[in-house]
Amino acid sequence: MTKAIAYYRVSTAKQGASGLGLDAQRTAVEALCASRGWELAAPPFTEVESGKRNDRPALTQAIARAQLTGARLVIAKLDRLSRNAAFLLTLRDSGVDFVAADMPDANALTVGIMALVAQQEREAISQRTREALAAAKARGQRLGNPNGAAALRRAGKGTSAANAAAARNADDHAERLRPVIAEMNERGITSLGGLAAALNDAGMRTPRSGSWHASSVRNLLARLA
After folding, report:
1. Same domain? 81 vs 170
2. Annotated active-site residue in 11, 50, 94, 216
3. Rounded to two decimals, what is the model's pTM?
4. pLDDT tens digits for range 157-181
5. One domain for residues 114 and 218
């Protein structure tokens, strides 16, 4: 029988002590293992950590145990690992066979694409910002607004360079998400709300690094069309 090792993560000590969040993860992992006929090793590895940190000793131990025993590493959601591209790629390259209950058919290629999308998003935002600022500076434009951003919004003003950069970034971001949306559609996720939830669960961010809602998904699909 295939052996599996469970890894659970909660973001606060309060959740860890109360079991809030852990029960749902445990249910998802146990259901997946039961459906596949996998034997869950005891005890599971549980970590109380911030999703923004990569130094997770419990996860390191779980990976080491999986490497030593040849067991699968099973988690409830991919975003329970990390939204950091380098970390996801490191996990992918560790040689550990891992599976997420919310995306049981995801493979190393899928995870690699997700990691690269997250990394390229951060790099694109940074690059577009630098280009817009450099262009504005080259034209002799004074950067900053002594009257505050609210005054500019009320006056309906803004720099054309910044607006153009934002539009380019949104277009590039949409193209990077095209294969992700296609994969979700193949899994039967087609509604605006369903896609928003799936994107948030997968750790995908909007062009402005926010969470997805039905309205932002509608805008994304419009760009892809």
Report:
1. no
2. 11
3. 0.48
4. 556 666 777 777 778 888 878 888 8
5. yes
